[in-house]
Amino acid sequence: MSHRIARWMSPLLFAVALPALAQEAMSPARPPPEWWVDVNVASHHFEDADEYLGPGEHFNQNNYGGGVELQWQPRHGASVGYYRNSVYEDSWYALYHYTPLPLGEHVRLGAMVGLVSGYPGYNHGNAAPGGGLVAKVEYRRVGMNLIYLPRIPGSTPNTLGLQLKFRLGR
Predict the structure, then answer these.
(1) CA distances from 83 to 1, 29, 71, 95, 111 (A)
(2) Which residues contact 41 (CB under 8 A, 6 or more apart)?
(3) What is the CA radius of gyration of the chain?
(4) Residues 90-112: pLDDT tens digits?
(5) 2 pLDDT exceeds 80?
(6) Contact assessment for residue 45 and residue 26, using Cβ atoms and an 8 Å cutoff
(7) What is the DSSP letter of 16?
(8) Which residue has the higher pLDDT, 23 or 54?
(9) Is 168 helix (H, G, I), strand (E, B) or coil?
(10) Can you tell me the mean pLDDT for 60-85?
């Protein structure tokens, strides 16, 4: 199997399993799951690109891409998708979200953990563990995920990412 296929196969398998996970997590006492379309927009890097890309090169701050997010409870969710990452490579991700801390009526704080691909300095660009902190802001059918990704030496600096999101249905 080529490395290119292997890099996106794990997130694809996770995406296929998402509906089954949602069905398992639902009970009569819980509200129905929510599906969202995520649009990856931008990032901000808190360090110089020289350590990661080389002298005179710059990070890609426009990390366009898209994905889907499923929330089966306000604090439990998962997402899969694609984006053009900060080192100008294609990235695929499959993440579990846990946001147990409400901050008012429309904001939840927590973390994401799962698999991400496309970072040459991290597992040679193949799918590897990834995670970060997340603030989910949701109001009716629109929202955003503000994601903090910690520094991985030789791969990525401390980064703040922005996703816009749009709820499907209801």
Answers:
(1) 22, 36, 21, 14, 19
(2) 62, 63, 64, 162, 163, 164
(3) 16
(4) 999 999 999 999 999 999 999 99
(5) no
(6) no
(7) H
(8) 54
(9) strand
(10) 95
Residues 68 and 2: their CA atoms lie apart, in Å, by 26
CA angle 158, 39, 91 (to 5 degrees): 55
List, in order, residues 6 or more apart from 141 with CB less than 8 Å away. Answer: 166, 167
**65-73 vs 34-45, strand pairing mode:** antiparallel
82 in Cβ contact with 90 (< 8 Å):
yes
Distances (CA, A) of 62 to 4, 51, 156: 22, 20, 15
**Pure H helices in the chain:** 3-25, 50-53
DSSP 123: G
CA–CA distance, 131 with 112 (Å, rounded to integer): 5
C-beta of residue 164 within 8 angstroms of C-beta of residue 81: no
Supply φ then ψ for residue 119, to 5 degrees.
-110, 105
Using alpha carbons, list the distances in angstroms from residue 119 to 15, 100, 159.
Answer: 21, 29, 14
End-to-end CA distance of the chain: 41
Within the chain, how many helices (H) and strands (E) appear?
2, 8
User: How high is the pLDDT of residue 27?
Assistant: 54
